[in-house]
Amino acid sequence: MLRPPAVPLRPPAPRASVLPPPRAANPNTDPTTTTTTTTADAAATMGAAAWWRRALGQRFNPAGVAAVAAVAASEPRLALPHVSVQDIRWLDWAELRRAGFRGVVFDKDNTLTAPYAPALWPPLAAAFDQCRAIFPPGALAIYSNSAGLKEYDPDGIDARAIEAAIEGVHVIRHDIKKPGGAAKEIESYFGCSASNLVLVGDRYFTDVVYGNRNGFLTVLTEPLKFADESYIVRRVRKLEAYIISYWDKKGHKPIKHSLLPDARRIVKFDPYDDSITSRV
Given this model, what pLDDT does residue 57 score? Predict the structure, then answer.
């Protein structure tokens, strides 16, 4: 797989603590103050509990585990992407448009952004601008297991933050984690079948399985940043890679897509690799 030239990365912005403020050691005994303090403490405790449920839920995905078992038992090719690239800089958006695709659906964490960050990963900015220029307004969306998922983002606060940070992208609100569920929310937003859309993500057993089950053209990217991922997610990635490698050795191939039988058409050469350029 081709790799980009080294790009200096911006240091991550400081993140506010997600834990509630500590409780006062000696609250005032005035009844009004006591009531106010107790109410604030209760709200803070509920907020912390909600955060932990969300964090644990994002790290352990029962639907993803079930998908591994189901795919392993029935159809391994559902976990195989149509094409794998380093990141979105390797994709030829114009070729995708010429092939008849009407929009692009991105996973968020480690596909477009660092884990849990709202802003676009800086080295991807030019490639994302190219994508936004080639597809019509409203044709780029994020479908994430964090932002926009009603279980963890019921009020759409995270979704709106991302839409404000990444111009031209819409975060689709939905009820069920990938790889579970159909593509009804996505198809409703785009006004077309999922078979006319591209799904880009960094996980075999969530993004790719979900995309292949619903008829998308599936593109797998490598994760942008491991540092902020949990230990569990890193271990699951290794397990996924081992299983995919095993299936590849067994001769399993990706599902053919009707709009793009040869997905290699959409992969660019590395413009910085003189050895490749000289052979073209």
Answer: 46
Q: CA-to-CA distance for 193 and 191, rounded, in angstroms?
A: 7
pTM value > 0.70? yes
Residue 199 has φ and ψ, to the nearest 5°, of -115, 125
Q: Which long-range contacts (CB under 8 A, 24 or more apart) does 123-129 make?
A: 123/4, 123/7, 123/9, 123/87, 123/89, 124/87, 124/88, 124/89, 124/224, 126/89, 127/87, 127/88, 127/89, 127/91, 128/88, 128/166
> Token pair for residue 23?
């409780």
Domain boundaries, the chain: 60-277
Q: In whole angstroms, what is the distance from residue 136 CA to residue 138 CA?
A: 6
Nearest to 239 by CA among 116, 9, 61: 61
Question: Is residue 121 pLDDT above 80, yes or no?
Answer: yes
Q: What architecture is the 60-277 domain classified under in CATH? A: 3-Layer(aba) Sandwich (3.40)
Secondary structure of residue 129 in the 3-state scheme: helix
